[in-house]
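Quick one: sequence plus zinc ion SMILES, need structure tokens.
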Amino acid sequence: MVYENPDGVRIGLEVHVQLNKLNTKLFCGCSTDYHDSEPNTHVCPVCMGLPGSLPVINEKAVEYAMKIGLALGCDIVEQTQFHRKNYYYPDLPKGFQTTQYDFPIAGEGKVVIEGEDGEREIGITRAHMEEDPGRLQHMGSIDKSKGTLINYNRSGMTLIEIVSEPDMRSPKEARRYLDKLRSILDYLDVFDGDREGAMRVDANVSVFMGERVEVKNISSFKGAERALLYEIMRQKNQIRRGGEITLETRHFDEARGVTLSMRTKETENDYRYFPEPDLVPMRVAGRVPDVAQTLPELPDAKRSRFLEQYEMSNMHAKALTSQIKVADFYEEVASRVNPKDAAVWVADILKGELNYRDLGIDAFSIDDIVEVIELVTGNKTTEQSGVEIIRAILDEGGKPQDIVQAKGLLKVEDDIVATAVEESVAENPEAVADYLAGKEKSLNFIVGKVMQKTRGRADAKEAREKVLAKINA
Ligand SMILES: [Zn+2]
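Reply:
Sure thing.
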């Protein structure tokens, strides 16, 4: 199946990743741990942009940037340099943002995603380092706000801006790209993606090879998909009515789910880029081998290994490798029980129950899931009871053995099931006759009687087989 892309949609994304696992900011020693702090308490003359203050580059930040570049298959540049991007905005007290321009630390690369019609490479144009501005806090929706407050705690945090080619053809592909990017960054352990604003997205969207429109300030992945759906519809409608799409920047209003025109798009010339005189160019190429050594096994490689080593389905391999924590959890479980059972229980059952409760994998203990799997595969309890034990642990707490006892989930002995089958068949001759006359449903009725007699502790599948054997005997 080939995806035709009937509307000629082209989407490129610029993702700002905040490296919030660094201890200090990009150009000063201010702590990055400001999330529960009062506004404007994690600041100094450098990140406040006071005259005369001088930036000093954070070495670890450069290393993280290289790590990200390498993980995205980018070429690391020989020598990189910072520029000043001049513009005035209240969240940027210096009047310019220190960023990278024609020598970004990482050049072309690629990310493989699950596209509309199979695997698909999304080109990475570049990844560069820059500082985060402060934060404006509007009082309410941006166009109705009565006032705005400024918090500079965020000013000077390290950002990596990852720019993609306009290779995505639908909001769904954009979403998959973002998920994949997050997965890779998670593996690299360079940021905590759950923190507010850890990944921010700007999108370039065009339809029918027309002008592109930039949509800014998308703060969640779900928001990205919604903003893109809205923007594509808006552009198509505009063209249908005989209008034109002009190069412009729009703001996504998350609360209302619409994009609003902000300004005509500024061009590079408007920013008057020039080399940052307070920071010397950095020769980074020589550091590549050392940084490459610190790269972990990445999601695609782990998925291939899981497929081969544990002989699991592609679906399980994907589900188990998209988050590094889940992958580690699985491997620990698989080292203690049959890896195939572990895949089913972790990927299908446990993850489902956790997602339903909006919990992460660390909300469940490895010992407990191993015990549940052993209870089921050891025929001590049924699969359905295994699921019940997991739910009980999540909702009420407790240990598998105790729950089995307390809830009476131990599987009944075979001879009790056999007796129940015998009785159920003998007591319901009409149902047996109906079944033999072709009424499939009557079999369920008899199996239901067996379950009743064993108070639900028989394995339904086994009971069904036994009833069938009895009737056909
Ligand atoms: Zn500072």
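The pocket of zinc ion is lined by residues 25, 28, 30, 43-44, 46-47, 156 (CB under 6 Å). The radius of gyration is 29 Å.
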